Amino acid sequence: MSASACFRGWAPPERGPPRRSMAAPRAPESVYNLLPRLEERPAKPPRPSVKREIEKSKAQWKTMGPAKVEVPSPKNFLQKHSKEPKLPERKKEQDRRKMPALSVPRKTDHPLMGIQSKKNFINANAVSVIMGLAKKPQPIYVDRRQGDKHLLETSGLVPKYIKKKDYGIIPKYVTQRNEEIKRAQEEHEACVLESLRKRAMKRLSDEERNSLLQGLKKNWEEVHHEFQGLSVDIDTIPKKIHKEKLESKMKQLEHDIDVIEKHKVIYIANE
Question: Which among 110, 113, 138, 266 could bridge 204 via Cys, Cβ 3.0 to 4.6 Å?
Fold first, then answer.
């Protein structure tokens, strides 16, 4: 079949009434519409720079308080003596009242003329020098052979405390402290006597003290004699125990004898 026959036998399809649709209206038919078109994408807005935003935000927090501060004017600088207290200005009336009288000679005053003195100043000066006392040189000290000279009075080497009015006098705080110590000692003795009186303590007489001392010494001699009578070989436990008892008794007696010999006054409780 030829191409013409094919074209003759072909007929376009019947079109019905146009349908209404919500789609956008089509472009008019054209040969150019058959070509594929490139899709035009909308241009993106420029991206903000993160670095610039951070710098802007940092500038707001660089100082305490508001970021924008008024810059001081160079005309308002600190002047000399501006912070010193200023006295109120004096009034003219007060100045006139408080002005001292000036000892200025007036125009009409004339100086006394022709006054002469019969004093011989040369002889007077010579007499004053002859009769006057010679000046004593100030005492000085030198730190080394070729050193500088210094005044001795202000050096601290001179014992000036000897010239004080209260030199050699006991200070008040020392006398007060001695009185307090004496008072405390008296109170302590009174307290001891009171405690002895309450406890009904009895003081040993010299005869009783000597008899007690002699008795302790006699007991020590007896224990010592018994200790010397022990056998040389101590090979059993009872012998060791007996020896230790004698030694402890002798030590206790020696301690009591020393105490009584050291203390002449001894108090004992009444039974």
Answer: 266
